[in-house]
Write a structure and sequence with these properties.
The complex is a heterodimer.
Chain A lengths: L13 H17 L7 E3 L2 E3 L1 H24 L7 H17 L5 H24 L5 H20 L3 E3 L5 H8 L1 E2 L2 E2 H19 L2 H10 L1 H6 L4 H27 L1 E3 L7 H11 L11 H20 L5 H18 L1 H10 L7
Antiparallel strand pairs in A: 1-2, 3-6, 4-5
Helix pairs in contact in A: 1-12, 2-7, 2-10, 2-11, 2-12, 3-4, 3-5, 3-10, 4-5, 4-10, 6-10, 11-12, 12-13
Chain B lengths: L9 H20 L6 H10 L1 H15 L7 H18 L4 H25 L4 H19 L6 E2 L3 H8 L2 E2 L5 E2 L1 H19 L1 H11 L1 H6 L4 H27 L1 E2 L7 H11 L11 H21 L4 H22 L4 H11 L18 H7 L2
Antiparallel strand pairs in B: 1-4, 2-3
Helix pairs in contact in B: 1-13, 2-8, 3-8, 3-9, 3-11, 3-12, 3-13, 4-5, 4-6, 4-11, 5-6, 5-11, 7-11, 8-9, 8-11, 9-11, 12-13, 12-14, 13-14
Classes of the chains: A mainly alpha, B mainly alpha.
Chain lengths: 337, 359
């Protein structure tokens, strides 16, 4: 062994942290007032608060997506599910004048049904996840539009208590941040107090071996897809509450891509197995910081897609053993294979 | 009468039956729906998604997926409009450039998927972002760019009469030509057989000494080419290059391929089925337009439902087809592996380190 036996291998979460730090440093140097946080009417204002606030929907979806990807699956229907949940909330508010708890419970129930639909296709019918969830992705927005009865249903000022969820503040911070934090804590608790984490990682590592080892593979898979649907529903409700309107065409558009991106940036492998919820949360914040940075520079919104794409390519290459080997050959001092 | 029907054509027959049922049902509902001209219109209007679906058929038969095609359509249409209108490049050169660009981009995606063992889904997802972003960068003011290039306008006005007052426009001709060429390549060439083989088992392809890299790169290059061709068709049919056009085409193309009977697990499928899948999609859209009361949402829901039905059918059909038997065999008793399959390496550990740990 010529090289040192134990080389320090950074945890994958290091990369998003480094990238985020670099971005923040850039903003510290080149974006005036980026780090300014004011307190007005007991609320925190500033770019940083906005970044965290705007990253919440992607963050929530990414939490569900992380578990799905960890089982070796994927859920590309989350955007459509968010639209469906938002549509249900909108209809309940506008046409049924429903009380708040119904406006919160029924959309999430609809999202759970969507998740259960995906779960059924993936488990009982053993369809590949990308295709199974493709069905709802294709049809879901159509369903949402039908529920709304058009493309958008606006209800500005109709239900302040519901709008509070999307744009309100509590103890100086946006309410939705508490929602995301609460969800994250609940999931982490569930993973710690039950063997769920072990089961999910086992299935992602080798589903067949897990089944032989007695893991209820189908049940665990069903749980993660239903949970992913629920997360998408929560995100959809928050987005709907924020714009005070159920817009079937735009609520949660491309959120599946951002969520997957957040998960991958966060260090969870697309092949399943080990997963990092904290990394996904960080990934969501990183994506939003990137978007905000680009926007504050006056660059058109469309450029963010370009940057996101380049980030994905970089992450794919960094995760690829082949690329690292090639890189290792170039960097002096590293043992070539 | 003997049935000259090979079992392997069963999904194709099922898809064709669905198309005929929907087409005839539409004819019953709406006077004058069943005309040859209407059929030719289905081809023209289905050509954008259809051309993407032809390329996608190669990719899916080989067991991959390409999510970048919709953005590629928008990108190549925008670049073509930009080249001819703003840069003043002659149309033939611009067309060749755009098609070459599409092919090269597909090739690059294939290279990342094959050489860096990255999941096709995530690589082409990045491609989807990249191309859409680039399309908006190229387009002046990020808006649609009208095309008045005389050559392209002439192509748009071109109509090939096929009798019964029916004409094939450029889109229909491009789609039919692409389907015929693709069917010949898949059915009659060595490359085509390799595509099926890769979809059946990459391991076996390597063991048999077939060119795995060339085949995998080839299918993504073909998909990129087809999507660029769809972009060209879009420019000709709409007389503009639009960076926000063709959103969701990748999903519709995949749906058409699956409805056309191609097995999503790879190794089995026909491009003719894809054409029928595209026609089914287009009939549904046309019916909804005729109806007037139904909205486009219903088209999405019906296509989603059809997708579901055909995926379920695949599960039952696949018991009978060769590909299905292989799957069934795999499911019951795994054959002894001839070569050890390397386990997916955890990303945190480089091969160099694994080697260094060995005694």
């Amino acid at each position: 062994m010529s090289a040192p036996a134990r080389r320090w291998t950074p945890s994958p979460v290091v990369w998003p942290v480094v990238a985020l730090a670099a971005l923040l440093l850039y903003n510290l140097l080149f974006t005036p007032n980026f780090f300014d946080v004011d307190i007005r009417d007991g609320r925190l204002y500033g770019s940083l608060v906005d970044v965290v606030k705007n990253s919440v929907p992607v963050m929530i979806v990414a939490i569900g997506m992380t578990l799905v990807i960890a089982t070796g699956g994927i859920d590309i229907s989350v955007g459509a599910v968010a639209a469906i949940a938002g549509a249900v909330a909108g209809v309940l508010i506008v046409t049924h004048q429903a009380p708040l708890w119904i406006v919160l419970v029924l959309p999430l129930a609809a999202a759970l049904v969507c998740g259960a639909f995906n779960a059924g296709l993936v488990t009982a019918l053993a369809i590949q996840p990308i295709i199974a969830t493709l069905i709802l992705m294709v049809a879901g927005r159509g369903v949402a539009r039908l529920i709304v009865g058009g493309s958008a249903l606006r209800f500005p000022g109709k239900m302040p208590s519901f709008a509070y969820l999307g744009s309100g503040y509590f103890l100086g911070l946006p309410v939705r941040v508490y929602v995301a934090a609460g969800l994250l804590v609940l999931v982490l608790l569930a993973l710690r107090l039950t063997p769920l984490r072990l089961y999910i990682q086992a299935i992602g590592g080798n589903a067949k071996a897990s089944r032989y080892a007695g893991v209820g593979v189908q049940a665990v898979k069903a749980v993660v897809y239903v949970f992913s649907g629920l997360c998408a529903g929560i995100a959809g409700v928050i987005l709907t509450a924020n714009i005070q309107g159920a817009d079937a065409g735009t609520v949660g558009i491309n959120i599946e891509l951002d969520a997957i991106l957040a998960v991958v940036i966060g260090g969870t492998s697309m092949n399943g197995g080990r997963f990092r919820l904290g990394g996904s949360v960080l990934g969501a914040i990183l994506i939003q910081t990137m978007t905000t940075t680009i926007l504050t520079k006056g660059v058109p919104v469309q450029y963010t897609q370009l940057v996101k794409a380049l980030v994905v390519v970089a992450v794919i290459l960094l995760q690829s053993p082949e690329f690292r080997r090639q890189l290792g050959g170039l960097v002096p001092g590293r043992a070539a294979p | 009468m003997t049935l000259p029907l090979n079992r392997k054509y069963l999904p194709l027959v099922a898809t064709s039956v669905v198309f005929l049922v929907v087409f005839v049902a539409a004819g019953v509902m709406y006077e004058g729906f069943i005309t040859l001209n209407n059929f030719a219109n289905l081809l023209t209007r289905g050509s954008f998604v259809g051309l993407c679906a032809v390329g996608m058929t190669f990719v899916i038969i080989a067991g991959g997926i390409d999510l970048s095609v919709g953005s590629m359509v928008a990108f190549s249409s925008t670049v073509l409009a930009w080249l001819t209108e703003i840069q003043g490049v002659p149309a033939p050169i611009a067309v060749v450039l755009v098609l070459a660009l599409g092919t090269l981009f597909g090739l690059a995606q294939g290279a990342m998927i094959h050489f860096y063992k990255a999941p096709a889904f995530i690589v082409t997802l990045a491609g989807m972002f990249l191309l859409r972003g680039l399309a908006f960068v190229v387009a002046p003011n990020q808006a649609a760019l009208g095309v008045a290039n005389p050559t392209l306008v002439k192509l748009a006005e071109f109509e090939l009469p096929i009798g019964f007052d029916a004409n094939l426009r450029f889109g229909a001709l491009a789609l039919v030509a692409a389907v015929i060429v693709a069917a010949l390549v898949l059915g009659r060439t060595r490359f085509g057989r390799n595509v099926y083989a890769v979809g059946g088992s990459e391991q076996s392809v390597l063991l048999m000494g077939l060119p795995l890299a060339r085949t995998k790169l080839g299918i993504y290059a073909i998909s990129g080419f087809c999507a660029a061709l769809a972009g060209l068709t879009l420019v000709i049919e709409t007389q503009s290059g639009n960076p926000s056009e063709a959103v969701g085409f990748e999903l519709e193309a995949i749906a058409a391929v699956v409805i056309g009977g191609t097995l999503l697990t790879g190794g089995y499928g026909f491009v003719a089925g894809t054409l029928v899948g595209v026609l089914i999609r287009q009939v549904i859209y046309t019916i909804i337009e005729y109806n007037g009361r139904l909205t486009v949402d219903w088209a999405m829901i019906v296509i989603g439902a059809l997708l579901l039905v055909f995926i379920l059918l695949q599960r039952f059909f696949s018991q009978g087809t060769a590909a299905g038997r292989a799957t069934a065999r795999r499911r019951t008793a795994p054959p002894p592996r001839l070569a050890p399959v390397p386990p997916p390496a955890p990303p945190a550990r480089s091969p160099a380190r694994i080697g260094a740990d060995d005694p």
